[in-house]
Amino acid sequence: LELPHLSFFAGAKIPSSFPPERVSEVAFVGRSNVGKSSLINALADTTVVRTSDKPGLTRQINFYAAGKIFNMVDMPGYGFAYVKEEEKTQWRELMETYISTRKTLRKIFVIVDARHGIKLADVEFLEVLDKKGVEIQIVLTKCDMVIPPDLARRYVVVKEKLQHYKNVADDPLMVSARKKTGILKLRKEVLRTVDA
Ligand code: GDP
Questions:
Q1: Which of 6, 65, 71, 195 has its CA 20 to 30 A from that of 103?
Q2: What class does CATH assign to 6-193?
Q3: Ligand 1: which of 28, 38, 39, 115 to mutate, most ligand atoms within 8 Å of CB?
Q4: In the chain, domain spans
């Protein structure tokens, strides 16, 4: 099972630069350094997002076309410690506009580090997302960094926290971009979401 070939076609720093709403979209978001680029690359089974030339603080939404079938959307990371208030406001406005207005958005995959679980920055973002009524799927990544008994415990803790939200899928997915575990299941979930 593969995703259609992904190719970058638009980057938007402001809402007026969003590309036209032609096909269904799934978006990926998470705290900075959570492993989002690695995960998108693992899903695509090729290097789509180059980690090396990724400027840490780019407040930009990147759009990748998956063939002509759907779009994968890479959202700028949140929870960066040293970001100026002004930049945070800009980030919030860009994200909120995208989430509130994007008619083709089918689901947001919120990437969470399995070692750390749901942090305050995640909670703040989830609160906003949940109120907008957009469907959310939590993905625990870097699962290879946690020993299995701990992973099982952490899974339960995360699952309990998710009960609080109306639009978050009950079961977090568990993956490792490095070991490629859980990637097939996530790929299926993406394809199912966009009816591909
Ligand atoms: P992003 O900032 O969220 O896009 O994060 P990156 O994909 O650049 O990953 C941040 C760091 O985490 C890099 O050093 C990656 O090699 C590492 N990383 C990403 N995914 C995994 C994973 O599944 N397992 C492990 N062990 N490390 C990972």
A1: 6
A2: alpha beta
A3: 38
A4: 6-193
